[in-house]
Amino acid sequence: MRYLLASKLVLILALFLLQGLVFAQDFPAAPNPPRLVNDFTGTLSAAEVDQLEQKLLAYSDSTSTQVSIVLLASVGVYEISDYAFQLGEQWGIGGKGKDNGILILAAMNDRKVFIATGRGMEGAIPDALAKRIVNNLILPNFKTEAYYLGLDEATTMIFKLASGEYQADELMSDGEDNPILGILFILFFIFIFVVLPIIKNRKDNNNHMGGRGGGIDFWTTLLLANVLGGSGRGSSGGSFGDFSSGGGSFGGFGGGSFGGGGAGGSW
Q1: Were both Cys, which of 34, 36, 169, 230 would link to 252 (CB 3.0–4.6 Å)?
Q2: How much of the chain is helix, strand and coil, in % rounded to 5?
Q3: Distance from C-alpha of 138 to C-alpha of 261, rounded to nearest angstrom
Q4: Where are the alpha helices (DSSP H) in 27-79?
Q5: How many whole angstroms separate alpha carbon 162 and alpha carbon 263?
Q6: pTM (2 decimals)?
Q7: For residue range 237-266, what is the model confidence (pLDDT) as tens digits?
Q8: What's the Cα-to-Cα distance from 181 to each of 158, 174, 244, rounded to whole Å?
């Protein structure tokens, strides 16, 4: 009897250890040397990986917020949201105590993507805005196999939200809760940034339309795109301020945690 009981305990322990081993194999180990951009599929070119790495590294150095990109072949039997949360926890993306990590996870064979936000970033990037970034920036680009562009545009918008350049509640209400106010807001900016510069240029150049200021600049285009709930495609590709270049190497994740915030989609 005791022998039978001991055998059962050994079997249960062995199954438990085996399950833990299988679970560990489902998730890649944290990169060594540490990197913010990890493409396990070869989808991005080496130059594209390096450009994104330097962009995210410069932002991390300037703000302490860690945005990481991971491209996998598949998340297997997991829901991509659950996989993203667990991977973010295991790697410790974000600062310990600040929980200011953000993970963009793409499962290329599954054709699914998810943005997971650390506990400390859920106010700056609530689920509704994470969903907009996925739907308006990532998925349209991924559908045309413009993977680098989708990730570049998405991280640019994440930077703006995380840095407080755009307020989450304002963006979520613009053009939705009060469409008339949104239209007036657009007309006001068109008048300030388009009409007035044209009038000024005409005066300065004897009614000639040449010169600077005759069109909508980058920031106006991006603002209008957000008010309209658009993607800003074509306006946010490329660098974002001083965060598009940098040197050095990533020192490693800080031990942040994730509370279940984020959004995803499929293409």
Answers
A1: 34
A2: 50, 15, 35
A3: 18
A4: 46-63
A5: 16
A6: 0.68
A7: 344 444 444 556 778 998 999 988 999 999
A8: 25, 8, 34
